[in-house]
Task: inverse folding
């Protein structure tokens, strides 16, 4: 099957090519105030603990850090000390008021419910934005940020790092080559999280510690009493604040699905199964179905999301015909010291000293061999034949493909087929690294691979899936009007409830 012309254009967006309707050259971008590549960006970091600290230290390797902001000085203490000569703010608004002239771009890593508020404020000041995943908590906010990036002409990137991984792009190339035929069904899974699930009552009120600015932490959210139960991490499990495992892991594991299948907006979402539901938090586990219409030559596809899947669950997904196979591949399984692992591109000869792995009858590639890391099951290794862990399975008319974690590993099933498989020709450009991709864009280079024009629509349907956790039944979605055709209650969850004075608008 030849890859259609539209596949090349769509893929080029993920590879970082300038869109036809976008900027015409690096020179034109620099005329708008972008920096030459040899100049360093002046960066501010909003949220410097946890993942915020990780991305802060990544960008500090090549760019100038000029200001920091964190509402919790205890959580951010290691990096506040590391960069102790820099000005520190507790409220992002104060940072922007005082430092706007001094900064070119920001990294943002804060609770999900404040993502859109902070990112929009930065874009309105003309600042380039690297925003950690998930892009937003609600579908309406995701669309707002995509529109804002266009209006304010800034470089953007969502922190779903798997989009920059080799295996993520190879998975798309395998699917587009026609190797597994038409894909009409996909299953995405995540491991159980460490945030609270199934809570029946709010946590008790406590005194606010001196190290935390509770009002700044709440930001746009309606006022509520402080509880140490929310911070620094449990907020993720509450509907009001987070997106559960959708934001924590499905944003990663569904990435190859969104990319390779060129998904847009679904026609419907449906809660298929749920365990220990709650009005306050995400349940212990659930299965959500999303139905996407046909996209050009690609047929309609149903995507099942298995939240917190375990091999012992009665409704765990069993991959057809793969009862004796390890479902998810090892991470980084494409390369061995930078060379294809027995699977060269095209029909050429193997590199010197390399051999195609041969499997004994019943042996599963990656199933516990020396030095091989395998994902997908509970303690003791993955259970054969079932989908657990962080990953995705593509069910095609001619075969099955699986990806793992952030899209950091890919293979065909059964293992014997993968052992003999030769990778298709490369169609997509490769990434210099997820943060480097953003820095390049902020200096006037190609748009980043997960800029908001790409990650916005993706985050939008993920946020729709989060709504399905709260309401039973099939919900019919009108993407143009951003409402559910058959549920006013579900429509009320499409956009956030904001504290007066915090409303968002372009």
Result:
């Amino acid at each position: 099957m030849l890859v259609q012309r539209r596949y090349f254009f769509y893929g080029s967006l993920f590879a970082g090519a300038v869109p036809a309707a976008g900027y015409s050259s690096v020179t034109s971008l620099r005329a708008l105030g972008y920096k030459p590549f040899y100049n360093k960006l002046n960066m501010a970091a909003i949220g410097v603990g946890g993942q915020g600290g990780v991305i802060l230290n990544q960008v500090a390797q090549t760019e100038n850090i000029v200001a920091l902001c964190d509402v919790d000085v205890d959580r951010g203490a290691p990096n506040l000390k590391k960069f102790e000569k820099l000005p520190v703010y507790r409220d992002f608004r104060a940072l922007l008021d005082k430092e706007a002239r001094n900064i070119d771009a920001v990294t943002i890593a804060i609770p999900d419910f404040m993502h859109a508020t902070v990112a929009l404020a930065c874009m309105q000041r003309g600042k380039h934005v690297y925003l950690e995943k998930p892009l937003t908590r609600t579908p309406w906010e995701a669309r707002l940020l995509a529109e804002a990036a266009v209006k304010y002409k800034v470089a953007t990137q969502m922190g779903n790092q798997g989009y920059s991984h080799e295996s993520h792009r190879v998975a798309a190339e395998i699917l587009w080559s026609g190797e597994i035929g038409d894909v009409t069904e996909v299953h995405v899974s995540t491991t159980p999280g460490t945030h609270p699930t199934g809570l029946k009552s709010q946590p008790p009120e406590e005194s606010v510690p001196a190290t935390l600015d509770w009002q700044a932490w709440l930001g746009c959210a309606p006022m509520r009493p402080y509880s140490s139960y929310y911070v620094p991490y449990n907020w993720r499990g509450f509907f009001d604040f987070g997106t559960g495992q959708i934001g924590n892991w499905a944003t990663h594991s569904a990435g190859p699905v969104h990319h390779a299948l060129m998904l847009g907006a679904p026609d419907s979402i449906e809660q298929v199964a749920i365990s220990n539901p709650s009005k306050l938090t995400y349940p212990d586990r659930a299965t959500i179905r999303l139905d996407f219409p046909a996209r050009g030559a690609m047929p309609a596809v149903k995507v099942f999301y298995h939240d917190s899947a375990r091999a012992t669950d009665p409704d765990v997904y069993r991959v057809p015909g793969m009862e004796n196979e390890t479902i998810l591949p090892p991470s980084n399984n494409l390369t061995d010291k930078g060379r294809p692992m027995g699977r060269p591109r095209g029909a050429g000869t193997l590199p010197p000293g390399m051999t195609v792995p041969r499997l004994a009858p019943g042996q599963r590639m990656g199933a516990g061999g020396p030095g091989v890391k395998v994902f997908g099951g509970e303690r003791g290794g993955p259970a054969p034949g079932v989908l657990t862990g962080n990953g995705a399975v593509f069910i095609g008319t001619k075969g099955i493909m699986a990806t793992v974690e952030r899209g950091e590993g890919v293979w065909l099933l059964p293992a014997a087929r993968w052992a003999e498989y030769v990778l298709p020709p490369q169609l997509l450009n490769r990434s210099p690294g997820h943060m480097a991709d953003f820095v390049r864009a902020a200096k006037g280079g190609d748009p980043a691979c997960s800029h908001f024009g790409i990650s916005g629509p993706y985050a939008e349907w993920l946020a729709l899936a989060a709504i399905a956790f709260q309401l039973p039944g099939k919900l019919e979605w009108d993407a143009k009007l951003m409402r559910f055709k058959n549920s006013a209650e579900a429509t009320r969850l499409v956009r956030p409830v904001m504290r007066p004075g915090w409303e968002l608008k372009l």
Summary: The two ends are 44 Å apart (CA to CA). Residues 177-197+241-347+364-420 form a domain with the Dihydrodipicolinate Reductase; domain 2 fold (CATH 3.30.360).
